[in-house]
Amino acid sequence: MPADLLGAEQPVVLEGFVAHWPLVRAGMASADAALELLASHYRDATVNAVYTEPEAKGRIFYNEDFTGFNFEARRVPLDRVMTELAEQLSEAEPPGIYVGSTTIDACLPGFRAENDVDLGRPDALASIWICNRSRVAAHFDLPDNLACNAVGHRRFTLFPPEQVANLYPGPLDFNPAGQAISLVDFAEPDEARFPRFREAMAHALVAELGPGDALYIPGLWWHHVEGLDALNVLVNYWWRTVPAWMDSPLAVVDYALLAIRGLPARDRRAWKSLFEHFVFDEGEEAAAQVPRAQRGALGGLDEASARQLRARLRNRLNR
Q1: How confident is the model at residue 1, as a pLDDT?
Q2: CA distance readout (Å), 97 to 126, 134, 150
Q3: Rounded CA gap, 176 and 9, in Å?
Q4: What angle do CA 207, 198, 173 make, to 5 degrees?
């Protein structure tokens, strides 16, 4: 794994990076061969699977009035999903079948002995994604991501974090998979409803991965993902380059909605300045005037001081 890749600020395509994997070679022979290789590692595992009707054309999204979703989520044995995919390989417009973010070691023990990437990070989470043709709405993930395309072709359309407003994200607390998603249908963008999407696309990077290719996605980059073939299999690795005791920044977003979003405009502007000074300014300028021994949280955190700060926050939340 290239050392300079970890922590890169923009996505990077790695052509043929995992072309040596047995799964990649099997998939190049046939989809059936790829499914047989996966089945050889299966050990009685139940997974979360998403099923869509043929008319959805693989798009995993909300229903028409946003009271629910356009798919059915089921807990099913992974071998049943693979059988269903095998049976539908020749269908022109099959129902959508999508298994995402499934921990490999739990459902396919032994698979990683010959199909793996050594990131030099034992904390990296290795997951597998198996589907027929699919369209996953643009979203972001907190961790950095190495996506290794093993079977079929996948198209990624990626956007830097500052394009968030031009992607028209939906609800934070009601969404298909735990993260806000773009409400734009990339196949048929509604320019009247989403006029700024054109600006987002001006900043987009598009990567189409063939079998054996990989893509590094920095954390917080938005990405729309399409599975283009009758069978698509991807293995990805997630990791964060921060200490384990640090909390998720999404918790701050939730609390800011509770404590700041409803303030008068004058107060929101003041709090924006305070955040810029105490949180986002780099270096020690925010606390340079305070003796080092008395800086508290402004002097930097470690595991012990993080526990103290977390306890203080709990006390405030439990008022």
Answers
A1: 66
A2: 21, 8, 17
A3: 27
A4: 80
Exposure string (b/e) for 155-188, b if CB count within 10 Å is 16 or more?
Answer: ebbbbbeebbebbbbbeeeebbeebbbbbbebee
Quote helix, strand, coil % in the chain, to nearest 5.
30, 25, 45
Number of other residues whose CB lies within 10 A of the CB of residue 251: 10
Work out whether strand 125-131 and strand 205-209 pair parallel, antiparallel, or are unpaired. unpaired
Nearest CA-CA partner of 51 in 22, 14, 94: 94
> pLDDT: is 122 or 221 the higher one?
221
Asked whether the whole model's pTM tops 0.85, one would answer yes
Parallel, antiparallel or unpaired: strands 144-151 and 46-52: unpaired
pLDDT in tens, 158-187: 999 999 999 999 999 999 988 999 999 999
Q: How far apart are the first and last CA of the chain?
A: 48
Tokens for 109, please give them. 């023990």
CB 60 within 8 A of CB 52: yes
Q: Are 159 and 202 in contact (CB under 8 A)?
A: no
If we measure between CA atoms, which residue out of 236, 235, 227 comes closest to residue 98?
A: 227
Q: What is the pLDDT of residue 126?
A: 97
Distance CA 66, CA 210 (A): 34
Q: Lowest mean pLDDT: which of 182-191, 249-258, 285-294?
A: 285-294
Q: DSSP string spanning 62-74?
A: B-TTSSSBSEEEE
Kindly report the backbone phi and psi dihedral angles of residue 297, in degrees, each rounded to the nearest multiple of 5, phi listed first.
Answer: -60, -25
* Contact present, 27 and 151 (Cβ < 8 Å): yes
Give the model confidence (pLDDT) of 95-128 as tens digits.
999 999 999 999 999 999 999 999 988 889 999 9
Quick check: helix, strand or coil at residue 109?
coil
